[in-house]
Design brief:
Elements lengths: L4 H13 L16 H16 L3 E4 L5 E4 L4 E7 L12 H16 L5 E6 L10 H6 L5 H5 L9 H5 L15 E9 L4 H5 L3 E7 L1 E10 L3 E2 L11 H16 L8 E3 L3 E4 L5 E2 L2 E10 L2 H22 L2 E4 L3 E3 L2 E2 L2 H14 L4 E6 L4 H5 L5 E6 L15 H17 L1
Parallel strand pairs: 3-4, 3-5, 5-17, 6-16
Antiparallel strand pairs: 1-2, 2-4, 6-15, 6-17, 7-12, 7-13, 7-14, 8-11, 9-12, 10-12
Helix pairs in contact: 1-3, 3-12, 8-9, 10-12
The structure holds glyoxylic acid and manganese (II) ion (2 copies).
């Protein structure tokens, strides 16, 4: 097949126009927002123009089917609340271009997917969770975002959802191209990363309940301040985690909601997210035990209640060796000596698909290692080289 770099880049820029933030090449396109749904409809029209059969499943995952058993290529097109133009979008448009070019050349059948809610507005990789059967649709429907909205009410905005289902046995394998979102390729000047494995993740919402009171009249020793409890909890977690982690282990308190969030009120309630990632499942489990233990200790020490919701997560997973070999060969053919094998510290839909289909991932460099931020970017030459490598591997597979 002959891929068309201009058409690929033009589509990528058009996708960016849905939710373009005005800051650099930033994008605000959270799952099921009006602009995200509009972008999905545009993507569906591009798939149709490419001669693919368009199908939305009940959750809103969008497929462009080649009509026979085929390789599936894609990623996601929703964004973080403040996201970049490439995270996910790159893999979807790469899939579109490869499917289109292969059809034009009478090449092998290739299908495309854009999974819904990869960025976890509601869960963790929600679209591919439900598609691969890891989570029942009814359970996904009960998930809520940070505003308390349920996924069920959000997805009902998409009238397209709920068509004929797309089963995993329609496909021979899955390829996902993505920006690295970290500094490794940028610092090494390698232009391609072939992913060996994807680290595992655990994510939990925690609520600390203290006593809301007057910030002028309540003596310090009588306070049950939910924010102070969170600060103590965080310090204790850092201390305890440091005893068992490796330099590659990461953990984050990324969302905090202080109630009532006012200068003159002792906070009565704090809700926050706690997330940790590691390549070793046993370490993820050990960290969970530390979290549970620390919550109990802090509740006692600070006179507050600490409630954990169920811990969600995905286990570490290896990429398929045959798919990796095809990506490595294509990398060596097109970027000799300028590629490397590497693990993925970010989570991807490929982690969900790997247990059900032979799966591989390809990375291109992220300038400055920046992602999940408006200034995420990659040189267009690197985007095109990645596309060429992916197309070659797809043909070989
Ligand atoms: C996916 O966006 C992740 O958080 O790794
Ligand atoms: Mn992504
Ligand atoms: Mn992301």
């Amino acid at each position: 097949m002959t891929i068309n770099p201009q058409r690929f880049l033009a589509d990528l820029h058009t996708l960016r126009s849905f939710g373009a933030s005005g800051v650099g090449k930033g994008v605000v396109r959270p799952a099921y927002s009006a602009v995200e749904i509009a972008s999905r409809r545009w993507l569906a029209s591009r798939m149709q123009e490419a001669g693919l059969e368009v199908r939305f499943d009940a959750l809103g995952n969008l497929f462009g089917l080649a009509g026979e058993k085929s390789l599936l290529v894609g990623s996601h097109s929703d964004s973080q609340p403040e996201g970049g133009w490439l995270d996910g979008a790159l893999g979807v448009i790469a899939g579109l271009e490869i499917a289109r070019a292969s059809k034009e050349a009478g090449g092998p059948p290739i299908s495309v997917v854009s999974f819904q809610d990869e960025e976890g507005r509601f869960g963790v990789l929600t679209g591919s969770d439900v598609w691969t059967g890891r989570m029942a649709l009814a359970d996904a429907d009960r998930l809520t975002d940070t505003e308390g909205q349920t996924l069920r009410s959000a997805r009902q905005r998409m009238k397209e959802g709920g068509g004929k289902s797309v089963t995993t046995d329609l496909f021979t394998g899955f390829l996902e191209m993505h920006i690295e979102q970290g500094p490794v390729l940028d610092e090494s000047s390698d232009r391609i990363g072939v992913v060996t494995n994807i680290v595992g993740i655990r994510n939990v919402k925690v609520t600390v309940k203290g006593r809301q009171n007057h910030a002028g009249t309540t003596p310090m020793h009588l306070r049950r301040d939910a924010f102070q409890a969170l600060v103590a909890l965080n310090a204790r977690l850092n201390e305890e985690f440091s005893k068992i982690v490796t330099p590659a282990t990461v953990w984050t308190v990324g969302h905090v909601d202080v109630h009532p969030n006012a200068s003159s009120v002792v906070p009565g309630r704090v809700s926050f997210s706690l997330q940790w990632r590691d390549a070793d499942k046993a370490r993820l489990q050990a960290m969970e035990e530390i979290v549970r233990q620390t919550c109990t200790e802090i509740a006692q020490a600070c006179g507050v209640a600490v409630e954990m919701e169920p811990v969600m997560g995905i286990d570490p997973v290896a990429m398929d060796v045959r798919v990796q070999a095809a990506l490595e060969q294509a990398s060596e053919d097109l970027a000799p000596g300028q590629w490397r094998q590497m693990p993925s510290g970010a989570l991807h839909d490929a982690a969900n698909v790997a247990p059900v289909l032979p799966t591989g991932m390809l990375f291109v460099p992220s300038i400055g290692g920046i992602s999940h931020a408006f200034d995420e970017d990659t040189d267009e030459e690197d985007l095109v080289l990645g596309l060429e490598v992916l197309a070659r591997a797809a043909e070989a597979l």
